[in-house]
Write a structure and sequence with these properties.
The protein is an alpha/beta fold. The chain has two domains: about 5-55, Macrophage Migration Inhibitory Factor, CATH 3.30.429; about 65-185, Nuclear Transport Factor 2, Chain: A. Helices cover about 30% and strands about 40% of the residues. The longest helix has 18 residues, at about 15-30. The protein is elongated, with a radius of gyration of 21 Å.
Length: about 190
């Protein structure tokens, strides 16, 4: 039964501390054969006045936003075609890989690639999952696509998985898998 203790400077919100406790629990369960109910996480807060590093008083860094919320926001801006806001969420060197498409590095390339494929597409989300891999945050979004083909025929319930990588709060990579081609082929 793992017991994990973390020490934080005062100032983090209750939701930030809950996210940290969930993350520590998940990390323990990934390594130790324990159920989440068997993992105890205790977070101790210290007054900033009691903390020094390098001989200087320091304050805690702000908590990072929930990466799943960041990806939800990015996907919502793309669906709304708020391209400038979406572009601001991308890191230099961002690349996206879609089925049967070369790696694209701009949102304009993505829009041009999608234009001859369908009139519009939207997503229904089943879940988001996040993990940390060194400096890279990985977020998966899963669900179904719905929309309209170019001939006006509606489509729905097409499975998809998007995998995103983020560093420093900016998206560096997006990989997309879906059953759109199979669905369209089965219509013929």
């Amino acid at each position: 039964m793992p017991i994990i203790e973390a020490h934080l400077l005062e100032g983090y919100s209750a939701s930030d501390k809950q996210r940290l406790a969930r993350g520590l629990t998940d990390a323990a369960c990934m390594v130790i054969p324990a159920t989440p109910e068997a993992v105890t996480v205790m977070i101790h807060e210290m007054p900033a006045a009691n903390y020094m590093r390098g001989g200087q008083a320091r304050s805690g860094a702000p908590a990072r936003p929930d990466p799943c919320d960041t990806i939800r926001a990015y996907l919502a801006t793309m669906e709304a075609r708020d391209i400038n806001t979406a572009r601001a969420m991308l890191a230099p060197g961002f690349v996206m890989n879609f089925p049967d498409a070369p790696g694209m590095t701009t949102l304009e390339q993505l829009i041009a690639w999608a234009k001859p494929r369908y009139a519009f597409v939207k997503k229904t989300y089943d879940r988001f999952e996040a993990l940390q891999n060194g400096p890279t945050t990985v977020v998966y979004s899963m669900g179904t696509l719905y929309g309209e083909w170019l001939d006006g025929t509606a489509f729905a319930d097409i499975r998809f998985i998007d995998r995103f990588e983020m560093e420093g709060g900016l998206l560096t990579r997006q990989d997309v898998w879906n059953d759109m081609a199979e669905t369209k082929a089965n219509m013929a």
